[in-house]
Amino acid sequence: MGPTRPSFLSPRTLQRHALLIVLGILTVILSLSTPSFFTSQNILNLLDQVAVIGVVACGMTVVMIAGGFDLSVGAVVALSAVVIAIAAPAGGVVAIAAGIAAAAVVGLVNGGLISKARVNPFVVTLGMMTIIRGLSLVISDGHSVYDLPSWFGFLGASDVGPVSWGIISFVVVAVGTHVMLRHSRYGRTLYALGSNEEASWLAGINTGRAKTLAYVISAALAGFAGLILAGQISEASPIAGQGYELQAIAAVIIGGTRLGGGAGTIIGTVIGALMLGVIDNGLVLLGVAPYWQGVVQGSIIIAAVGLAAYEKRGGGA
Predict the structure, then answer these.
(1) Which of the 8 DSSP states describes residue 88?
(2) Poorest-confidence range of 46-55, 231-240, 266-275, 285-294?
(3) Which top CATH class is 41-308?
């Protein structure tokens, strides 16, 4: 009998923590490649950038575990920010409630069309993305909203010690979503729904309501991300959030959420978002042209999906 391999080196353990290992390796490589990467200021800036996409990705995880996806979240980020900015004179609580409510309505429409009318999620959310982009431009008259009240930047720019409220908000959202998915009846329903919708319906689950609520959660979190983003950049732009839907989907897929639903974790999504943020930040610090960021992200997505398909086939067995 050969020597026993340490448990932390077992194939199962390495596979389970592969994403975290890759993130660690990337961090080490970039730290050695550019001295400005592993500084406290750069790490905090990186986390600030990841916070917005991370919040959106948490909502996307909920939808994708349920077997869907949402291409409208980037547009919802802009809509929420614009609505909150326009409603700001009514007071902070009213304005924020209006922005999040507007986002939630988008999710309600998405979920209703997908679960009740049985329209393909790609068609519904792609169409909604276009509608919401146009609506944001209409209500803002095609201009960014500036001169925001001081409370507007609270979640984006204010700090608790060295850490911004945007980062803290991301952590709170991630923890809350994780608890909901792993430790609530509704979370178990979403996993069952993504695994086999017909079986879930036969088991007495109201699949339409569960799926619709998933899209409402996704949109509401995108709306909250819009508030954070507007606070960070001190303006509410109707064209903000472009490409966020693809970045969020990338973070979720890289994090191990299965296309088609039924499997995935918020922890994986957080690591996926951090990995994308580290790569983008590293490329900038290394002086690589920003056009390459999309090439790298797309390659990572293809690699992640290919690896998941390979593992599903049993490693080629």
Answers:
(1) G
(2) 285-294
(3) mainly alpha
